[in-house]
Design a protein that fits this description.
It is a single chain. The protein is an all-alpha fold. The chain contains 18 helices and 2 strands. The chain has a two-stranded antiparallel ribbon. α13 packs across α14 (317-336), α13 (302-312) runs parallel beside α18 (397-409) and α14 runs antiparallel to α18 (397-409).
């Protein structure tokens, strides 16, 4: 009788990124070429349409101000989802940040208000962590509940705290707080005036670059600088430290992480609480920098847009920053210039869709390419047949941009594998 040898099958060959089934990552030179192409297209649209506000220093400064709270909310979502917890409650945590930031800000100092806003958001993050990590509640349900709870709590306390006594005497009401002091802003002396002079010549590309750079060095809030440092710090912590590796392992494969000695619950709690704190900081920015007061409904869905920016950025800080900048630009455009500038963007959208359609046809994605070209033709007809766009469409510009960007970038997304999955302690033992 002959013995049958049991052979171990050879390991599967690793997939090479960039092949047919792989996903190619954009290199830095390619990203820079895309940015340069976008800038040239924007400059050409500005020159053709005469919509000078598209690249003005005022527009860029306003766009940066609008992008910071969106980016901070998205950064909070990135921390939570890298640890495997979906945080739909970012909007509610931002609401807590706007309220408690303004409440502490008008009574003491704006920086104490910033701290209070962060703590308010962290409290919302703690509630979300207890519900999802400890009790295993569905992440979406918990996030929606926090959004509703935050809105109700702040509405109640606004009527209680802002509508009587000293607060009412200083301009408070059931729907808004008294104004707080300004957070210091800085302007780079000399450089700002020189760039403003270049911008005034309206030269092709040169004036556009001057306007963009001028907006970044004029009346820059110190809290904006803090937000930029938080983006850099997040990248370093999550991708360059052992702590970040362990936290990201909880979002990719918590069972394997636990089997290697990682306390998955602890890392998820830290990530979600930090997530709430960042969203709260974004809310405090709205009430202490953008408007200097708390207003009911002040967040305006920016928590959800931040989540969309995070998805657009493929769960990485650099892409998130680009997405937040794009949505902030659209938000500022509809607030500053209205119909004429948004109408000019129709021409830019036409150019982008034609480029996308040509690329898809080159890659033999004939259906997607044809659809892009058809939509481009419709957008061009709309642009040529009108002088402006309806007020309702202008107000909806940030949300329309959100939907367009997500639909165009959906094929390149790669979320953490265990994102949103219920995990119970002990599964890795």
């Amino acid at each position: 009788m002959s013995a049958t040898a049991t052979s171990t099958p050879p390991p599967a060959a690793p997939k090479v990124s960039g092949g047919k089934g792989g996903r190619t990552r954009l290199s830095l030179p390619v990203i820079l070429l895309i940015v340069a192409g976008g800038l040239i297209a924007l400059s050409a649209v500005r020159a053709i349409t005469g919509a000078q506000d598209l690249t003005s220093a005022g527009q860029i400064s306003a766009a940066l101000s609008m992008a910071v709270p969106i980016g901070l909310a998205g950064l909070g979502g990135l921390w939570a989802e890298r640890a495997g917890v979906v945080n739909i409650g970012l909007e509610g945590m931002m609401i807590l940040g706007t309220f408690f930031g303004a409440w502490a800000g008008w009574q003491t100092s704006p920086w104490i208000g910033v701290l209070a806003g962060v703590l308010g958001g962290m409290f919302g993050g703690l509630l979300h962590a207890v519900a999802t990590v400890t009790f295993g509640v569905d992440h979406i349900i918990s996030g929606i509940a926090i959004n509703i709870l935050a809105l109700g709590v702040t509405t109640y306390f606004a009527k209680l705290w802002f509508n009587a006594g000293e607060a009412a005497e200083r301009g408070g009401s059931p729907k808004q707080s008294p104004p707080s002091e300004d957070i210091t802003s800085i302007t780079v002396p000399g450089v700002s005036d020189w760039l403003h002079s270049l911008e005034g010549h309206h030269w092709f590309l040169v004036s556009d670059i001057a306007g963009i750079l001028g907006g970044l060095v004029t009346n820059l809030s110190l809290l904006t600088i803090v937000a930029i440092l938080l983006f850099a710090g997040t990248f370093w912590i999550l991708w360059k430290t052992p702590f970040g590796l362990r936290l990201r392992s909880c979002g990719e494969n918590p069972v394997a992480a636990e089997s290697l000695g990682v306390n998955v619950y602890t890392y998820k709690y830290i990530a979600v609480i930090v997530s709430g704190g960042l969203a709260g900081l974004g809310g405090a920015f709205l009430s202490l920098v953008t408007s200097h007061i708390y207003n009911e409904g002040q967040t305006g869905g920016r928590g959800y847009i931040g989540l969309a920016a995070m998805i657009f950025g493929n769960w990485r800080p650099g892409g998130l920053a680009m997405g937040a900048g794009l949505f902030g630009f659209a938000d500022a455009l509809q607030l500053r210039a209205g119909g004429s500038s948004v109408h000019a963007l129709l021409l830019l959208l036409t150019i982008a869709l034609v480029a996308l359609g040509a690329w898809k046809l080159y890659r033999k994605s004939y259906l997607t390419g044809a659809i892009s070209l058809v939509i481009a033709a419709g957008t061009l007809v709309w642009y040529l047949g009108t002088d402006t766009v309806p007020t309702e469409f202008v107000s909806a510009t940030p949300y329309v941009v959100t939907l367009l960007v997500l639909s165009l970038s959906a094929q390149r997304l790669r979320m953490p594998k265990a994102d949103g999955m219920r995990y119970r302690k002990g599964q890795g033992k």
